[in-house]
Amino acid sequence: MDTLLQAFEGGVVTGSVYALIALSLVIVYKSTDVINFAGGDILMASCYIALVLLVGWGAPYWLAALVAILGGFVIGAGFDRLVLERIARRARGQDIMIAAVIATIGLSYVLKGLVRMLGYADEVRSLPAQFPGRPLFLGNVIVLRQDIGIVLAASLAVAALYLFFRFTKLGRGLRATAEDPRAAALIGIPVARMRMVIWGIASALAAIAGLLVAPKILMTPDMGIIVILALAASVLGGFTNIPGVIAGGLLLGILENLIGLFVSTQAIAVAPFLVIMAVLVLRPQGLFAGAARMKKV
Amino acid sequence: MRAVWIALALAAAGLVFWMPLYVLYVANLLLMYAVLALGLDILVGLAGQFAFAHMAFFGIGVYTTGLLGNRLGVSFPLPMLAGAALAAIVALLIAIPALRLRQVYLALTTFAFAAAAQWVFHSWDAVTEGSNGLRLAATRVLAWRIVDDRDAYPLLLVVALAMVLLRLSLQSSKLGRSMRALHQSEPLALASGIDARRVKIVAFGISGLFAGIAGGMLPLFNSYVHPDTFGLEGLVAILTMIVVGGLGSTFGVLIGVALIGLLPEVMRDLQVLREVVYGGLLILTVMFLPQGVAGAWRPARA
Amino acid sequence: MTALLEITGLEVRFGGVRAIAGLDLAVEAGTIHALIGPNGAGKSTALNCISRFYDPDGGEIRFEGQSLLRRPPHAVAGLGIGRTFQNLELCAQSSALENVLIGMSPKLDGGNPFWPGRRRRAEDRRARETGMALLERVGLAGKADTPAGQLAFGQQKLLDLARALACEPRLLLLDEPAAGLRLREVRALDDLLVQLAASSAVTILLVEHVMALVMSVAQRVTVLNFGQKIAEGTPEEIRRQACVVEAYLGRVTDAVG
Q1: Would you tell me which CATH number, out of the four given (1.20.1050.10, 3.30.1490.120, 3.90.226.10, 3.40.50.300), belongs to the domain C1-80+169-257?
Q2: Which domain, by its residues, includes B289?
Q3: For residue A55, what pLDDT is reported?
Q4: What ipTM goes with this model?
Q5: Does B165 reside within a domain?
Q6: What pTM, to 2 d.p., does this model score?
Q7: Residues of chain C contacting residue A297, judged by C-beta atoms under 8 Å apart
Q8: Measured between CB atoms, does A103 come within 8 Å of chain B?
């Protein structure tokens, strides 16, 4: 029973991180119909930015984290402004989306390559935990302060995002752009600039997720592969349904740990892929959306 | 004019036979990539289906050929054909549920399938020797054995040429036209009497077949295969080849294979830059040369 | 005698909106029949039902006596119904000739895709000849090898028509063929349509806004508004009906001649 609860606890923690990254993907998808396959590598690059400041320049943690998050924002916004906008101008309809996805794959590789060239990648690194200290005990379940911190920080980020989108002018403009870019353009919202900001915010979210999770896992230039888990979470949640995606992240985290417990640790690696295939083939609208809304030809 | 180019290319191909063994190894590698890339392009470039399960079919081809040919000693070309058939069948099987999904969801599902397949290659130790890798003995061709790259080259060249011819024939056939139509406008294709769903499934099957044949080519000049070969990196490399070369064009794909395939050789000392170069090429190509190198060279299609 | 195309009681609903609310329409063989009405009246929806892109919520569509409703969209061309598109769904990167060959798909066997054998090559040659003849008929023979995306707008519309004709249809559905054309081009289209109806025994159902074309070319006109038929008759009869004028212009106090 205790191992089960521990698995549950671990699942909620990693699930919160997956949910954050999934949120990042969904925000971009809702506004541009593009799945950002580079999300995980933006996360990775931001972590390394923090690392360079901490280890290379001896900066205090809060500064390194801030720069890392800003760095994430800049990478995302810059990519949209320099690359995606150009693609949108050159191609039409369907081709834009395909070209954009290929571009995100390219970005993913560029980021990995650049980080490898930095010189900090030769050995496995780690970032310090934001919430160190003695672990707490809930009954027999070990709860690290970092764990609580992660869940709290993730919840705060989601809440802040919600408030931002609901109650600020910029936030409402962004939401309008996300829901219907053409209508937004018609009422005078600068759509291109909004999209750039959306990409920036989404990437900053990924950076935050990275900073939260990096102390718990091994930091390597390949850690961007975590995007697969975010994709699985998004698929579970129905890809455009924000609360669904958050629930999907948590569910996935718990599911992973349960599989590790009851099947094998080896099976954990294949679980997200099976989830993606199963959901998309059997219930493409995700677990938490309403009835399927299929579009005709 | 085109006949001159073809003659030159064939002559060059013949000359390679007398080059040092290392050159022959690279040539063999390129021939295999060519078949693999042409296959992916049939699905992505011709039919416009954004599906990425290709490396799974490649792996099925490799392991089937490896086990039948090298472990059990069955002579070439039977193991390769068996591998290709199995790959094609699996491709058709997953096409049926997968094609119900739109574009990016299709990409995601097929990619997930490929990743799951790679996990199987890693874990099914009894068949694939898992993470230890599979040792392959020399391929048997009737009474002879292929012992080095020079032996393998003529066989690989013939296989690659055959696949190029098949691809060219496909391109100018009614089926190829239907694929192109479906790619550019599905409503148009449907209104013109083209069974879009059937054409997509067939495209999947053919691309699986090509991947399976390419898989059959690997054991001819390699003595060892590891599951890591069938992962994301390989897919991105092949994707880069067809995007940079030119989606939907045989000529373009072959150029892309040559350019990207020779990149590691050219950049031997700069291995570290490899990822940046691949990624950069992908980004630059979709930004500035959406039709690839072939598109810039010969813009019109007929 | 049953009409070539018979639509009875057609119902199409999108969400809560009744795009088509009980439509009855009969198109007689050998005629040019126009379907007109203000924007949103349901004209294109009706065409999309006939070509099976939409599944109606009620009613029946019969072509040559057989129900179309159980057929998938790709079967329609083979049954003898061709159509053009309002938004010009052309294969922009393929040549004009290839676009026509694509339209010819239901008539072609194709042969073995992997080997260009003698029979396949012969069929290909004949197909190209037929395709070139079609292009000549619409005046595009000189542009056979030009990518469709590079043609002028008027030429693209003609190509769409040639492609639709390539399957030798008995019923041709034209979705706003004159939209965006200059007056000179509309007149040319007018002549072309009349020629087609006369020589190829093809029945034409044409959705159109450009009244000049409708009045000149159509033998029978059906007027739709809010998904229902509000008038039907010869062009002269229709022109004079007040309800038609109202539908387009809103209530008018003076009669418009």
Answers
A1: 3.40.50.300
A2: 231-302
A3: 84
A4: 0.89
A5: yes
A6: 0.89
A7: 53, 73
A8: yes
